[in-house]
């Protein structure tokens, strides 16, 4: 039986159990009356014989299974009632956790988007980025040689970012442009939402001038006009026909930037017919990636490329080079690295800073935890009488600890929800401030991070107060409570070993804070 | 303190094996409700075995969860509504298995407690 069915049948089972026991009592009573007892005696005797009805029910219920779920739901209800009674405490606790968790989630989602996330393309793990060892970027001649001679990739492609002016006249209208080689979309496996993507046939000098626009740009610039395909736009005053719109979510392969309009590499000639960059043998402007053939490892691919490297550089050499530069040029090699997470210059620039920041906000969260633990300790103090009564009535200590932990888990959960919302705004604000484009839609990794953070914080925050609150002999605590001594903290508290006094605990964080501020300033 | 160290549940667990066997045995003669089962066990054991209701109902529900018994609501002869338990096919199999195990245990105990008898027999 699954938990949901069980939950729906719960009330029915409950009333059936009640009826079953009542019928037992009735039958036993009738038998006794038949044997000549008075009805009052009979009822008393039957009840004595039966014993504790509530306890019998509880033990019977335990046989049904899912007791923990029922108790969990009961705990949640109990905790919610308690929290509603002290809204001030709840607000402070949830807010401080939300700030701590929110700050951590913000930074983690940036790290995730910039460093960890794979490109939104087909099988990103097969992509391999290629660099020229000395330069990084490619000249068009080297790229064309590599494209025609390589035998390790199913498909290889080159691209370059640029700026276009889309105005037909008058004021400039700058957009993010992208030159792509013919295999770009096909190798990445990026399809068109409408129309078609650019194909190898488009990437010919003298071919018809065509362009593809991104989904985001289509919505932003053209209000998602369904008839945009086939329309002619002016790019730097030259007419281009829009042949398609790419699928939503595709921003190119440079993490941190995006493209609005993509045109074939060959159409670069149109913009600069006098000195086309395509023919400049010393203009390093292209980035290159390839999709590995099945069974070829990145190491093999690198080695394979370097076997043909001398021939490639020989063919792509320029007469403008001085002899020693020429020798150097010909000795060039290719380096490869995994391309699954795309390219990013931002990555190198921000990665270290982000990790340092993340550990800093981690410390902020720890401070929030420490403060919240103090709050909960105070609350546990106020609750000692209640706990003592329940222990005296036979509640198990583990059960009470679980209930108190449910409280901190619920606080942690609420904090995480609010924190996740804060993080959404926070990370957007942050990338707006840093002026980069990142796909920040929360993915499983970020959600998992937030959830783990919430659970760990809840346990850190809740465990000590919960243990302390239940660490007492019911007798002593009841007497103490009855004498009105709850205000003074007794010597029995084992929690004393953890938190000697409240204020020193906060003080010992101070050096930590100072250290981090130091780190801050140095960065 | 004593009650906390020996909670109610423990007493049930001590009885569990035997109580299950007693219930299944009682049910092999036809469907019965909880009260009748407790009376029958008491009577059949010559008033020696007292089944506590605090153990009986958990045991019945446990047996039902294991599908050794099934239950339905019916009227008694005295026209009372009661929950009747009956043995299922799986329950019969379980009863046979438990009975033979119980006999083994009894024989073994007897032999262990009275080795002289066995030697004189042989």
Q: What features would you highlight for this structure?
A:
heterodimer; A: 523 residues; alpha+beta; ten-stranded mixed sheet; B: 122 residues; Arc Repressor Mutant, subunit A; three-stranded antiparallel sheet; 66% helix; globular; disordered N terminus
Give a concise summary:
The complex is a heterodimer of chains A (523) and B (122). Chain A is an alpha+beta fold.
Largest sheet: number of strands, sense, barrel closure of chain B: 3 strands, antiparallel
Rg for CA atoms of chain B: 17 Å
The domain tally of chain B reads 1
Helix amount of chain B, in percent? 55-70%
Question: Could you please describe the fold and organization of this structure?
Answer:
- The complex is a heterodimer of chains A (523) and B (122).
- Chain A has 523 residues and is an alpha+beta fold.
- Chain A folds into two domains: 82-117 and 346-484 and 495-522, no CATH class; 124-340, no CATH class.
- Chain A has 18 helices and ten strands.
- Chain A has helices at 3-34, 39-50, 53-63, 67-85, 87-116, 140-149, 184-188, 215-222, 268-271, 298-316, 323-330, 345-382, 384-392, 397-434, 444-470, 474-482, 502-507, 510-522, and strands at residues 127-132, 153-165, 174-180, 192-195, 210-213, 232-235, 238-246, 261-264, 287-292, 334-338.
- In chain A, helix 1 (3-34) packs across helix 2 and helix 5 packs antiparallel against helix 15 (444-470).
- The longest helix of chain A is centred in the last third of the chain and has 38 residues, at 345-382.
- By secondary structure, chain B is α+β, with helices and mostly antiparallel strands.
- Chain B has a single domain, classed as Orthogonal Bundle (Arc Repressor Mutant, subunit A), CATH 1.10.10.10.
- Helices cover 66% and strands 13% of the residues of chain B.
- Chain B has helices at residues 2-5, 8-27, 34-44, 53-65, 89-113, 115-121, and strands at residues 32-33, 69-75, 81-87.
- Chain B is globular.
- Chain B starts with a helix and ends with a helix.
- In chain B, 26% of the residues are buried.
- Mean pLDDT of chain B is 80; it is low at 1-15.
- At the A-B interface, helix 1 and helix 3 of A face helix 2, helix 4 and strand 3 of B.
């Amino acid at each position: 039986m699954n938990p949901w069915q069980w939950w729906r049948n719960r009330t029915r089972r409950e009333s059936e159990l009640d009826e079953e026991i009542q019928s037992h009592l009735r039958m036993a009573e009738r038998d006794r009356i038949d044997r000549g007892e008075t009805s009052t005696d009979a009822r008393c005797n039957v009840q004595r014989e039966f014993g504790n009805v509530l306890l019998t029910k509880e033990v019977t219920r335990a046989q049904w299974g899912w007791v923990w779920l029922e108790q969990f739901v009961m705990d949640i209800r109990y905790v919610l009632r308690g929290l509603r009674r002290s809204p001030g405490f709840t607000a402070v606790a949830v807010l401080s956790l939300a700030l701590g968790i929110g700050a951590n989630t913000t930074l983690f989602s940036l790290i995730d988007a910039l460093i960890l996330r794979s490109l939104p393309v087909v099988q990103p793990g097969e992509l391999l980025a290629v660099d020229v060892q000395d330069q990084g970027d490619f000249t068009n001649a080297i790229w064309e040689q590599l494209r025609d001679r390589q035998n390790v990739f199913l498909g290889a492609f080159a691209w370059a970012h640029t700026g276009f002016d889309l105005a037909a006249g008058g004021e400039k209208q700058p957009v993010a442009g992208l030159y792509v080689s013919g295999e770009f979309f096909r190798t990445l496996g990026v399809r068109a939402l409408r129309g078609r993507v650019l194909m190898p046939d488009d990437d010919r000098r003298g071919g018809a001038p065509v362009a593809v626009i991104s989904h985001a740009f289509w919505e932003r610039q053209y209000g998602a006009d369904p008839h945009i395909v086939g329309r002619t736009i002016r790019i730097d005053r030259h007419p281009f026909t829009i042949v398609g719109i790419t699928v939503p979510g595709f921003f190119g392969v440079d993490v941190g930037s995006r493209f609005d309009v993509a045109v074939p590499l060959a159409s670069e000639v149109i913009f600069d017919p006098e000195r086309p960059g395509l023919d400049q043998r010393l203009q390093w402007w292209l980035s290159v990636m390839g999709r590995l053939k099945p069974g070829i490892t990145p190491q093999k691919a690198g080695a394979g490329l370097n076997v043909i490297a001398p021939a490639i550089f020989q063919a792509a050499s320029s007469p403008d080079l001085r002899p020693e530069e020429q020798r150097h040029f010909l000795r060039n090699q290719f380096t490869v690295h995994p391309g699954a997470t795309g390219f990013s210059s931002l990555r190198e620039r921000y990665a270290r800073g982000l990790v340092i920041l993340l550990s800093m906000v981690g410390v902020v969260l720890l401070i929030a935890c420490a403060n919240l633990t103090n709050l909960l300790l105070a609350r546990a103090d106020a609750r000692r009488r209640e706990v003592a009564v329940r222990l005296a009535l036979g509640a198990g200590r583990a059960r009470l600890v679980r209930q108190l932990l449910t409280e901190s888990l619920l606080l942690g959960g609420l904090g995480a929800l609010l924190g996740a919302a804060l993080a959404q705004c926070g990370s957007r604000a942050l990338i707006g401030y840093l002026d980069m484009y990142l796909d920040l839609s929360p993915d499983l990794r970020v959600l998992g991070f937030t959830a783990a953070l919430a659970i760990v914080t809840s346990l850190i925050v809740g465990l000590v107060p919960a243990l302390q609150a239940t660490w007492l002999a019911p007798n002593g605590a009841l007497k103490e409570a009855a004498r009105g001594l709850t205000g003074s903290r007794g010597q029995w508290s084992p929690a004393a070993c953890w938190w000697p006094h409240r204020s020193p605990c906060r003080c010992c964080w101070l050096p930590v804070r100072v250290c981090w501020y130091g780190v801050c300033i140095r960065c | 303190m004593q009650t906390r160290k020996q909670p109610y549940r423990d007493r049930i667990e001590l009885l569990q094996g035997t109580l299950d066997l007693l219930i299944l045995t009682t049910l092999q003669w036809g469907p019965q409700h909880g009260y009748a089962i407790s009376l029958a066990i008491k009577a059949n054991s010559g008033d020696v075995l007292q089944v506590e209701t605090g153990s009986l109902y958990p045991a019945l529900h446990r047996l039902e969860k294991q599908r050794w018994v099934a239950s339905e609501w019916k009227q008694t002869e005295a026209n009372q509504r009661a929950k009747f338990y009956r043995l299922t096919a799986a329950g019969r199999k379980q009863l046979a298995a438990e009975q033979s195990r119980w006999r083994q245990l009894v024989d073994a105990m007897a032999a262990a407690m009275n080795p002289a008898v066995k030697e004189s027999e042989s």
